Amino acid sequence: MTIQPEVRIGNGEDFVAQTRDEVRQEIQAAQGNNAREVALAQKIQQEIKDAETPAKEVVQAGAAGQLDQRRQEGTQVLRTLIRATEAAKAGIPVGHNAQSQSLLTELSEKSLSISTASAIESQLKDYLLGEKTITISASGQPPTEFEQAYVRLVQTNTLAASVLSQSLIHAAEVNRLGSLDTDLVRQKFAIDQRVEQRVNEGYDGHLSYQDRSRFEDLSKKILTELDNNLNATNLPEDRKLSRQEQAIARRFYNGNEERLNQVEAIFSKLGIPRAELDNYKGLRDKAFPIDNVLAVKGMMTSKELTNHLEKAINEFTIDNLKGERLQILSEDPNGSGKLVLDRRAFKKMINQYYYLALKDIHKDYSKDWSKAFDQWQHGYYFGGLKGVIGNLCTNLRGLDLAGADIGEFLDDVKGRYQASILSYAEIFHNLPLYARDPSSFEKWGAFLGYLFPSELAEVFDPQDKIMEIARHEVTIHLRQRIALNNNKIPPDLFAGNYETEGVRYGNRDRANIIKVLKERMEALGIKTDDWEYERAITYALGIGIANLMDPEVICTADPQVNADFKGIYPLAQVLSAKHNWGLGRGYPVSGLFPDLVAMPVTLFPEQRGFISRLFRRKAWVPEKFHKYAKGQEAKYGDKIYGALIDREGKYQELMNMVNIGTSLNSRHGWRISPIRDAIKGYVKDGHYGLKKDMDFISRIARNDGDEGGWGAKEWEKYEDICMGLYGSAALWWMAGPRQEGELKRLLAQHVGSFDQMTASEWEAYSLGSKALKKEFKVMINGSFQTVSMGELRLIRNYQIRGETFYRYSRRNPGDFIMLLGQLCPEMLDLKTDYLASRVELEAALKGKHKPREDIEKALALRDSIYVRWGETGFAQLRQIRLKLLGLCQKYANETGVGKRFANQAAVIEYFVKESGTAFEKALKDKEPDRKIEGKTIPGRSRLIVQRSDFTDSILADFLFADSDGLLSLIPKEDFGGFDENNKFSNGKHGFFFRMGEMWTLKQGDINPFASDMNHFGLYENIGKVGEDVAKRYLSDADAVSKMLHDIGQLDKLLMDAAHDGDLSKIFELHDKVHTTLRNIIGQEYAWKANYIMSQIVAQFFLEHQTARLPLIPAPIRSLFGLMLDRNISLSKLVTQDRHAKTWDENAARDYFKRLAERHSIPFDGLWSANQLNQAFDAETKAFVAGETILQFMYSMIMFLLWSYLKKAFEESQGKKQ
User: Fold this and answer.
1) I want to staple 81 with a disulfide (CB 3.0 to 4.6 A). Which of 117, 266, 525, 1202 is the partner?
2) What residue intervals traverse the membrane (predicted)?
3) 216 and 363 share one domain
């Protein structure tokens, strides 16, 4: 090993001398008093223990060439060791035995530095304290633990090893090491060729000391260059590795057999020549001779890993595969005479043995993979295991096994499959560490670029459900923790020691998830080993971060408006605008936030004629609105964000639109086209009880009678297939195509027939010039209303989404209640009944002696819930709450300190857990796959839970009681669509409609059914559209994170623009919003986001209605403006700057026009500049008639009056003359 450069502490000799003087004074004060000597010894012993971690950090920094960055820690370690050696020399009993006391005394005579002291402390702390005994192995015997520690010291720092060697030999020579033989000590620890030979013997019998150093240097170089290339942002294309090249390079690094010619081309981009690759491969093959497993085993010093490898040698044999315990090899039941290899069981067995070592690496989760992975001991184990499995695969090839592709399978297992196990282990180990550093998020696309969906699907074995069930439970658990915490992120959701454990879930959460998982697997009758639970939870948590589903669930929590942001979930600020708001700036920043969340936005302007617009302008009184907003802030406090989101077009909706679902579950789109195509194929062929319908796709939008277009019944059957195969998440995926099909069919009726409806006509009505025309008379809540296609699309979206919530309520009622609790947190407040009448709520709070201010806030919150949910929905929410309280009462005798349930919330958690188990029983109750005409038709799972799925009769009655069960309180509603008579209605705007609406307003397009997604089915299919899908969706998420920061700080942008009049940053934000959302979601979504934001911006600058009165001369309106002073606009009112920028309609129209010219919004159609002009009464023709012509007329009148007065004056002067 190379000798690390020393770090000097100013004058090193002065520091050492000073430290010795200090400790000698302490020694003198203690000597002669036994109690004081013991106290001093204990103090120094604790200092030695405390110095271990800093010492390791110093050693690691030295290995990375960054020793100077750990100067402070190194100084403390050196000081500790000097104090210990001086005290021991003076007779203070620092060591617990004579050996350790002698060793410390010998070290007192040596010159120590930061590097040497840290190396000795990090490797030999237990021997310095005497907690372990120095022992030496006899010739030919395995090295003792002390010898192994010494070898590690040699590797770490040869100077430190030399210091220790001299101390050991001298101590032995003067008989201070007990019974240890002096010659044997010299033989073992002399720093010369014999030491180098002993190092080689201790770690590997094939590499020389120089070769091992070279191998480690090459390993470090390859890994560093790979990481640098991964993280680089501006590399030319010919030097940047693709995700496939990264994967191949890393597999080569991990020892997989790759073609050197292919690898050479890849590593040439990193500047690593072929000669070094050949050298690395040769040294690796020599260090880890997988073709000689027994030799590898002989090199290992870890007893536990050695035992695991020895067991693997015995297990991975043909005879054992045929044995009674495994039955992986069996005779072909079809009578072919061949043996059948159970591939699933074989891979599971491989995973089991890999995880025996991986579990120890994963336990060290405060370190990244490269630090937790022991290149030698873990490397030997994995190398030996690969050799064992490879030998078995070779032997299996000699058998006559069934399956035409068996050879290809065995080759894959020998190489790619095992390499991917380690690659994924590294990813899932490191992800929580990456997740705690938001600044690293932009690199995730590259970091996870070699996370291939087809390989990820292998983790979710459809025949071994533990991984799927673990993923479901992680999401259920996260949502439950948030929902039962008033829909806020619990501060204890993550590890207790935030600084070292980052965003890993706390030990309590992890333990609870494993506990539930074990109980669930037992309830399902699935036998599972302990190692499988550990692997499942590790990978489930890692996958949940990798696909962004778990961060997305966490981001559905309401933001901490008044928080100090110290405990914020790190990824929230890069994935969610609402959690990004105000970050690091405190609250309130400007006083503008209440105005933003209360700001009204007109989505669909009233259709008024020219004369009406000429004589009427947009009503706007900034002072009145500002007082209202501040009043709402006082009324709702930190609940203002959610309390005011009662309809579309709010700032909250804008933030939730850019708080888009960034996970694979939510950002599905083109990625799931293979799934859509497969389901369409099932419908065409008439599977799952459907009538064979080869032409159904073209008829989805038709309207030619009962045999024509699809109606609600057909869509329900279609969605049954989706949910039965892919889970409730698929209902969300299919909502868009269904909505488009229905509305195309409605438009076909409107224009006459399907054949008469052209593509351009559909475009005009969906987004173009006819989108705002109120031409569609539809049934809504039992009465006909005339609406535009734009309005109908929003309404229909809410209704279809509401129907998906209804379906999920029957599939997993517990998780459904948590989703509902996120939309109405007060429903899950078991202490205060916000859903009572105003009189009851006020009386209850008075009875608790609450201050009047708190009572008013509570009443206001209650009223906001009533407004959002309506009379019927409000009543249903209260019934649900009372039903939950009734459930808690059923377990009252089992609730309390030390009892089965700690409190009522624990009863709700129990309900959610049991509902999750019932849900998994429904999934397990699956139709068998069928073979029809050579095609496999997968079996569907049962769609809903049943009473028999619940073993607890109290819970079964709670849900399924005929008259008052929970599910009877939220019955199926009329969800609209086309009926059998070809009539369209939008159904009833009831409870589930409100739920669909509120979820969309609060969460945008985030898929709520993260707990019910078929991971295997998804990953198996999305790989078909490109194995780089992970990189692409993470790149999408990164683009969103760069956009939402400014959306979340729109208040600051507006304040700055008000002061300096510069709108450039606001226009840049519009551009960023449009480009990002258009590329990720679609053009319309981008236009709508900019439409909402532009109205908020315009109203911030818009002048008071009095200053914009029509038919009033400009001088008079200017006078009104002077009288209004700062109250003329929000921009002046909030900034208290009378010189702040303000707008009239003309300025607003110019702003909208510039947005259209920049393509941030269209000129005409839905979400257009024209629509904005209508909303602000700023249309050009109204301006020309009401402003330009009138002002011209006023000017002409003034000119004629002046001319008349002038002429009259001249005539009067002439008469005088």
Assistant:
1) 117
2) 1182-1205
3) no
